[in-house]
Amino acid sequence: MISNYKTITLLRVLKSVIDLFIDTFFVMYFLNLSNNNIIPLAVFYLIVYATVYITIFSVKNFCKRKKRVNLLRIGIILNFVYFLIIFLLRENMVHFSWLIAIIYGLEEGFYYSVYNNFESSGIKNGERKKYLGIICVLKSILSIIIPLIFGSVMSVQGFEKCLIIVLVLVAFQIILSFIYKDEIVNEQKRTDFKSFVDLVGKNEKIKTVYKMYMFNGIIYSGAFRSIIAIYIIRVFTDSFSYGIFTSVFAAITAIVGFYFAKLAKPKNYKKNLVISCILTALGILIIMFKCNFVTIIIFNLLQSYSKTIVELINSNALSDISNMDEIKNKYKVEYFVGMESCLVVGRITSYLLFLLMGIINTNLFNNIIL
What we know:
Layout: H1 4-33, H2 38-58, H3 69-89, H4 97-122, H5 125-157, H6 159-179, H7 193-202, H8 204-218, H9 223-235, H10 239-262, H11 269-289, H12 293-322, H13 325-328, H14 332-360, H15 364-367
């Protein structure tokens, strides 16, 4: 029998690989179907993240009960349905993008309503840095192989064949979700956000983590990643070369993950965050000045380090704080709902700006590297 530790690890790695596919090849396919108009893509993600928040907030009380693991299973099954619908609709997908966005939002909402809680409870604070580093290395190794497979398959056989691979990965996730056993449950009837808000007001650590996640939503996990995908697509015109490019920088992510697991010291986290922000800003300035093969390489070199470090430090801090006595015994669900709220606010803000860019310049995609 696979232990919960291994199950959580596999679930997270598989989810990361699937997200990589969505953030790269799905965006490429979506833009092709929408004639390189970024407005439908912006609306798609606005619907997704609005649905994510509504879902998480709607099931928050159920997250405190013994059968909460069913929420995780529902989320993964919806993910399978999401990709299956895309596979069946194919070129007509863009005409039903609002429906697909709702299903994707429901999937993310159900999945993350409980997943962070499981990971927080299942990994001890003293083991978390090593665990996150190992996760980063594992998903990076897969991210080296998978994009090459996706890129070559998409070039020769089309996007639909890639979806079959993704459906197999999601099916494996479904199996893992039924293997997982929720062993640590402090069952309560309802959430208590009024008391939790009072606690947050007195705790600077929680407020800092929430601010970091809002920043993450605006920059690293919001519209910025779609903009970068557009830049890369314009430089790497075929899916195979795009897959090679993605794989190379996944290797850099693996190196950063190894560094975090073995060498990074908590006392240096703040310094690393500052360096990451500077590198991100520098990378943006470089591609704004001139976007070509060389500047894209430089940008992604800086971005791969910065994004990975920020996400590893954020994840480590988030879960460590969730295991503080005043949080873990009563407010863990409220804590993660608060985190997801900050992330969603950041993402919606970034995609509203993305939508505004599209409205102001509807030919933005075609002119973005001129």
